């Protein structure tokens, strides 16, 4: 069973290959460069290194967002098109879940988030149960301030994981004080090998039906809906 | 020995998700277009982010349909051609990344194609090209005269200095409060009106094959505005007819002049506005009885489709052009 995983949903570009539940290779970069130019060369390089042909793939796993709309679409289009042409299953995993795996051994709440500009974040609350990550509640696009106030009401400790952690660290401390656990180092970067493992035991999506996990409507769509509601309300 | 070549074409530069399979650059085996026009109508125009979202939802559905209509398998496909640009970047990215993923997965050659080269090659389904050849390309984003001395060679001899012809149509349609998309509406109204309003024609400098439509657009605005200040109500049909006459006069005259100057053997019309009845009629009567044949694609091949991309891609494939895995969408790609 050969699994290819790819993540272009945020600044990190990650590609990983699993063979019989073993990681056999991965490429990760965390630089501001174009995913559209670099994804396919990265997949090509990795498969070349481990001497695997595309025809030998059995499953594709992709980080389906939230994140950059464009980045998410690059990964999803690539994953869907490969899976469709090879006639193999494809699995979309939330980019927040993929990041939450970095806190897998933490036994309280895990809060992965991505900055979404104007004080907003994409986030959700995860917890490890029976060696699996479970989402409690829903993933959402909220004001960080509102989200932290909500978290402050419970008495639990929360592990925060985010590539944008420095931008929000002060605000987190203001609201949660010592109950906020903020690790140092590479824990804030999603790892494509975790993404691949997450996809290993997840039921495949319909190749045609798999869509990005945007967590937000297109602006024009949101405005149009508001206008419609006003008209009808 | 295998002599036939089958090219898979992919086009997502604006608001159509399209996939086609074409034989030898001349014969359509399948041609599937998923239009998003109903979705964009409520916004009064194409919204780039919404277009990109539709493309990613549609792409594998349209691929499947193109293969099943053609009743073909991957083994028979020789290469994949995809629109690289110009167009909306987010929309282009879906096609480019799908093309790369398919080419990589099935280990096929990949060819990036210029969207306008595609529009030109839509004519090859009707008749074989003879060179030198002049192409008039008119669409929402383009107004260009292109000279071709051989397959795959494109020399830009004239282009718009401001608005594209199709853009001017859309703006005038909005002023006349016509539903989106406005171009076909103006064409329809123009057929019922009189050219009773005197509007300017932008000929530019002597000998120039460039175009300009922003002056005409302002002139239409002023005419409507002045009339309403005088309490006059202008007939929409007459405005449409007068506006269309101005656009069509310039397009026809410049195409004719260029055809003579470059001594071309064929004139080709391409792009969405090539579906315009007023333009088809005017060009038709200008070239009828001359020794220069005029080619206009059937209406379904005037608008964006992937068969035209596969047809242009076939020529590039035969000429040995190949794109790498780092192929990217290029919203302002040049034709050359
Ligand atoms: Zn076009």
H-E order of chain B: EEEHHEHEHEEEHHHHEHEHH
What integer value in Å does the Rg of chain A equal? Answer: 18 Å
Strand order of the largest sheet of chain B: 3-2-1-4-5
Beta-strand proportion of chain B: 15-25%
Biggest sheet of chain A: strands side by side, in what order? 3-2-1-4-5
Q: How many DSSP E strands of chain A? A: 10
Q: Mean pLDDT of chain A, as a whole number? A: 96
Shape of chain A: globular
Between the first and last Cα atoms of chain A, what is the distance in angstroms? 54 Å
CATH superfamily of the largest domain in chain A: ATPase, nucleotide binding domain
Strand-pairing-aware structural class of chain A: alpha/beta
User: What does the average pLDDT of chain B come to?
Assistant: 95
The value of Rg of chain B in angstroms is 20 Å
Helix/strand class of chain B: alpha/beta
Fraction of residues in helix of chain B: 40-55%
Number of domains of chain A: 2
* SSE sequence of chain A, one letter per element: EEEHEHEHEEEHEHEHH
**Architecture (CATH level 2) name of the largest domain in chain A:** 2-Layer Sandwich
Largest interface (CB within 8 Å) is between: A-B, 35 and 34 residues
């Amino acid at each position: 069973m050969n699994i290819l995983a790819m993540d272009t949903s945020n600044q990190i570009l990650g590609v990983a290959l699993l063979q019989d539940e073993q990681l056999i290779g991965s490429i990760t970069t965390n630089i501001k460069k174009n995913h559209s130019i670099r994804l396919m060369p990265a997949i090509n390089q990795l498969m070349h290194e481990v001497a695997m042909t595309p025809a030998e793939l059995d499953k594709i796993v992709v980080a389906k967002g939230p994140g950059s709309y464009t980045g998410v679409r690059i990964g999803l289009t690539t994953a869907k098109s490969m899976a469709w042409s090879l006639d193999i299953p494809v699995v979309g995993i939330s980019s927040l879940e993929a990041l939450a795996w970095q806190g897998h051994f933490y036994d309280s709440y895990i809060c992965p988030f991505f900055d979404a500009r104007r004080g907003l974040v994409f986030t959700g609350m995860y917890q490890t149960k029976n060696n699996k990550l479970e989402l409690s509640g829903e993933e959402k696009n909220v004001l960080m301030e509102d989200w932290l106030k909500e978290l402050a009401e419970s008495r639990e400790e929360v592990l925060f994981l985010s590539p944008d952690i420095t931008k929000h660290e002060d605000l987190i401390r203001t609201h949660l004080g010592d109950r906020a656990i903020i690790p140092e180092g590479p824990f804030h970067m999603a790892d494509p090998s975790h993404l691949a493992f997450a996809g290993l035991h997840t039921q495949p999506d319909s190749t045609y039906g798999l869509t990005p996990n945007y967590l937000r409507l297109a602006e024009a769509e949101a405005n149009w809906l508001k206008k419609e509601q006003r008209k009808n309300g | 020995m295998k002599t036939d070549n089958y090219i898979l074409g992919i086009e997502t530069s604006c608001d159509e998700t399209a996939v086609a399979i074409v034989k030898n650059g001349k014969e359509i085996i399948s041609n599937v277009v998923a239009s998003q026009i109903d979705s964009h109508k409520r916004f009064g125009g194409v919204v780039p982010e919404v277009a990109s979202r539709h493309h990613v939802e549609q792409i594998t559905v349209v691929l499947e349909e193109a293969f099943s209509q053609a009743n073909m398998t991957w083994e028979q496909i020789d290469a994949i051609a995809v629109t690289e640009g110009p167009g909306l970047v987010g929309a282009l990215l879906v096609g480019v990344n799908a093309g790369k993923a398919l080419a990589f997965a099935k280990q096929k050659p990949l060819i990036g194609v210029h969207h306008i080269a595609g529009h030109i090659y839509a004519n090859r389904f009707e008749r074989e090209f003879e060179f030198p050849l002049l192409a008039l390309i008119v669409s929402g984003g383009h107004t260009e005269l292109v000279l071709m001395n051989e397959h795959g060679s494109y020399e830009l001899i004239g282009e718009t200095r401001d608005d594209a012809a199709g853009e001017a149509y859309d703006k005038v349609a909005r002023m006349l409060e016509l539903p989106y998309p406005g171009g076909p509406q103006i064409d329809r109204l123009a057929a019922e009106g009189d050219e009773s309003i005197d509007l300017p024609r932008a000929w530019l400098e002597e000998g120039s094959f460039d175009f300009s439509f922003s002056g005409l657009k302002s002139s239409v605005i002023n005419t409507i505005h002045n009339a309403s200040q005088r309490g006059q109500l202008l007939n929409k049909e007459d405005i449409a007819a007068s506006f269309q006459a101005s656009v069509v006069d310039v397009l026809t005259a410049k195409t004719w002049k260029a055809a003579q100057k470059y001594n071309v053997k064929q004139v080709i019309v391409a792009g969405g506005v090539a579906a315009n009845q007023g333009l088809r009629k005017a060009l038709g009567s200008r070239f009828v009885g001359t020794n220069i044949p005029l080619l206009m694609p059937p209406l379904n091949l005037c608008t964006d489709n992937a068969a035209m991309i596969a047809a242009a891609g076939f020529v590039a494939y035969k000429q040995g052009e190949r794109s790498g895995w780092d192929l990217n969408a290029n919203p302002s790609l040049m034709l050359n």
